[in-house]
Amino acid sequence: AGIINFCANNYLGLSSHPEVIRAAVEALEKFGAGLSSVRFICGTQSIHKDLEEKIARFHQREDAILYASCFDANAGIFEALLTPEDAVLSDELNHASIIDGIRLCKANKYRYKHMDMQDLEAKLKEAQKHRLRLVATDGAFSMDGDIAPLREICQLAQKYDALVFIDECHATGFLGPNGRGTDELLGVMDKVTIINSTLGKALGGAAGGYTTGPKPLIDLLRQRSRPYLFSNSLPPAVVGCASKALDLLMESNAIAQSMAAKTQRFRSKMTAAGFTISGKDHPICPVMLGDARLASVMAEDMLNRGIYVIGFSYPVVPKGKARIRVQISAVHSDEDIDRCVEAFTEVGRKHGALP
Ligand code: PLP
Q1: pLDDT computed for residue 333 by the predictor
Q2: Quick check: 122 pLDDT over 90?
Q3: Tell me, what's the pLDDT at 1?
């Protein structure tokens, strides 16, 4: 009782939004509990097609394809798209599902240093010998809350004739003036070719993932992508949640704006209190502590004060870079944010993280 959650990916608070819940109940009643089938046999209902169309419209892309998760979308794309004659260039800190997806494909693999454009350029030069080049990056990185330099990446991609793929799990719905994501925030919506994202975070938080991009690519994925071909269709209630979440976001950017204001409040108050917060302007606010034990005992003590946060240490983050990852949501009130900052200040002083 009275505990406030500061560690969910529920950035917009839509997982508990009454209209999202009602949409799920209505879809359940109208379309049933599940399809007992993959999409291409008898697992496609009108709501699946509608949601794919809505996702493409939201991202201003030609088409979209649904998966059971973004992990599946990442597992399915590289193998379907790239041959042994091609190359994929991946940021070293990309999400595990991108790494696994790349492992499954037979393309030539290049790993560039985290957000290091000199290294990416060197690798792109090296990769000129291949038929096709794909640069793959998280739009926003979940451990540090930092945002990929997409403008520079797209410029390099243009120079060296490469395609750009972004994973927008920690951006869709709230980054950019209309919440379209990192490509909107950085003004490169027309330069990023492929977007993978999740329905399991800001867009209602239930489950599901997708790829959106050029129609021929989506057609190819429907023919060749193994997690799409060989895994069950998304349940109607889940589709209903995501579809309503997108409706709400396309009607107004007020929810995303309110989350951005709260993020700003938290980041500036914590910095003024003496903490180091990694990243910039992102609702993932890693409170950098360094020591693994300090992160763990502080998180425990925060819970005693009614604030639910989790400490992250090696091997999830590099040695010596332990932290407590705070995630801001539109459902937090200003008072909730202030309560969280006060608790951090008390606990930080008690354990020597603050003077
Ligand atoms: N990509 C990134 C960057 C993520 O953070 C996650 C989830 O943690 C995923 C992909 C996987 O998303 P899903 O939970 O929809 O499988």
Answers
A1: 96
A2: yes
A3: 59
Number of domains observed in the structure of the chain: 2
- Kindly report whether the global pTM for this prediction surpasses the value 0.85: yes
Please give the backbone phi and psi of residue 236, each rounded to the nearest 5 degrees, phi first.
-55, -40
Split at pLDDT 50, 70, 90, the class of 188 is very high
| Same-domain status, 240 and 268 | no
Q: How far does residue 74's CA lie from ligand 1's centre (Å)?
A: 9
Average pLDDT value for residue range 110-115: 98
- Split at pLDDT 50, 70, 90, the class of 200 is very high
CA 240 to ligand 1 centroid distance, Å: 20
Q: Active site includes 106?
A: no
Share of the chain above pLDDT 90, in %: 99
- What pLDDT, on the 0 to 100 scale, is given for residue 312? 97
126 and 210, same domain (yes or no): yes
Domain boundary among 221, 249, 277: 249
Q: Is the C-beta atom of 201 inside 6 A of ligand 1?
A: no
Alpha-carbon 273 to chain mean position: 29
Rounded to whole angstroms, the Cα distance separating 300 from 294 reads 10
Q: How many CB atoms lie within 10 A of CB 219?
A: 12
Range of the domain at 30: 15-249
Query: Looking at the structure, do residues 212 and 269 belong to the same domain, yes or no?
Result: no
The answer to whether 350 is a known catalytic residue is no
Task: Tell how far the Cα of 158 is from the centroid of ligand 1, in angstroms.
Answer: 28
Residue 353 CA, ligand 1 centroid: distance in Å: 31
Is residue 201 annotated as part of the catalytic site, yes or no?
yes
The separation between the first and the last C-alpha atoms of the chain, rounded to the nearest angstrom, is 31
Residue 323: strand pairing partners: 288, 312
Q: Cα separations (Å) of 352 from 24, 30, 239?
A: 47, 56, 47
**Average pLDDT in the chain:** 97
Atom of ligand 1 nearest to the CA of 141: 3
Per annotation, catalytic residue among 90, 97, 142, 233: 142
